[in-house]
Amino acid sequence: MIFSVTSSTAGGNPNTTSGVTTTQTPSAGAASNTATLTVLATPTIAKAFNPTSIQSGGSSVATLTLSNSNGSNLTGGAFTDSLSNMSAVGGAVGGTCTGTTPATLGAGATALSFSGITIPANSSCTVTFSVTSSTVGGNPNTTSGVTTTQTPSPGSPSNTATLTVGGGGAGTLGGSIGLKSGPLNARVWPIIIGNGGGGTATSAEVTSFTLLQTSGTACTPVLTTTLPAVAGDIPSGGTAPANLTIDFSTCMGTVFFKATASLSASGGAQTGTMVNLNQLP
């Protein structure tokens, strides 16, 4: 006797059939062996952006995490990602999953499709790529469920990850010099970076710094801080310091300097310049 069965209970499902009776042998014989039907769970997928906020034209890394709760590898994994209000930066596809196809994305691509992925048993792996957007505001994005050779019906779609894009660009960062402290050979100058953009300035930093002496006996200050000097994430309208340490030990008497700093945030999508005159050490 042959018939088909189905199950949605993942894991090993044992089953035993009763013994057989007949007209001639009314007492049932021995029960059957125990046969086990193993049902594979569909893989799951989760999506995240890092950073979650960028300035217009900036970039963020999308990370897709594929998880396999089964005791054996799942092969031939495939899914699609329709990017809304954003597009691929272009370049290599990264992550820890093996077999991911394609290995590169074209700049501006929005209808993404990945295949050939092996998801390891009782583990997870990642697929990563960079995206960019100039659509100001919150841009939600969801990735399709995953199919594999062993689980041809797709699992659930990913969570909805949101990439927030602020109105930024050149000139939206400003700077000033805060209260200086420390000895002359290790003077700390806080460069206060201000964010005039419409969204969070991520990883704001001082990328270059120069001192031009404008009066006093000639001397040579030495910047001992390695650039860039990071202030961190700054909300719209907010400020944060990036501390620079400068050695003024060669400077004697009263001396003044013109201080100039280049500022950057959100992967270079937001920039600015600070110029301060008549600065004492």
Strand content: over 45%
Query: By CATH's scheme, which homologous superfamily of the largest domain applies?
Result: Immunoglobulins
CATH class of the largest domain: Mainly Beta
Task: Tell me the strand order in the biggest sheet.
Answer: 3-5-11-7
Structure write-up:
By secondary structure, the chain is an all-beta fold. It folds into two domains: 44-166, Immunoglobulins (Immunoglobulin-like), CATH 2.60.40.10; 173-279, Immunoglobulin-like (Sandwich), CATH 2.60.40. Helix content is 0%, strand content 51%. The strands form seven sheets. It has a four-stranded antiparallel sheet, with no helix packed on it. A four-stranded antiparallel sheet has the order 14-15-19-17, with no helix packed on it. A four-stranded antiparallel sheet has the order 18-16-20-21, with no helix packed on it. A hairpin with a 4-residue loop joins strand 20 (256-265) and strand 21. The radius of gyration is 31 Å and the shape is elongated. The mean pLDDT is 89.
Question: What is the fold's blueprint, element by element?
Answer:
Layout: E1 11-16, E2 34-39, E3 44-50, E4 53-55, E5 59-68, E6 74-82, E7 87-88, E8 91-92, E9 104-105, E10 111-119, E11 123-132, E12 137-141, E13 161-166, E14 173-177, E15 187-195, E16 201-215, E17 222-223, E18 229-234, E19 239-247, E20 256-265, E21 270-279
Parallel strand pairs: 4-13
Antiparallel strand pairs: 1-2, 3-5, 5-11, 6-10, 7-11, 8-9, 12-13, 14-15, 15-19, 16-18, 16-20, 17-19, 20-21
Structure at a glance:
By secondary structure, this protein is mostly beta strands.
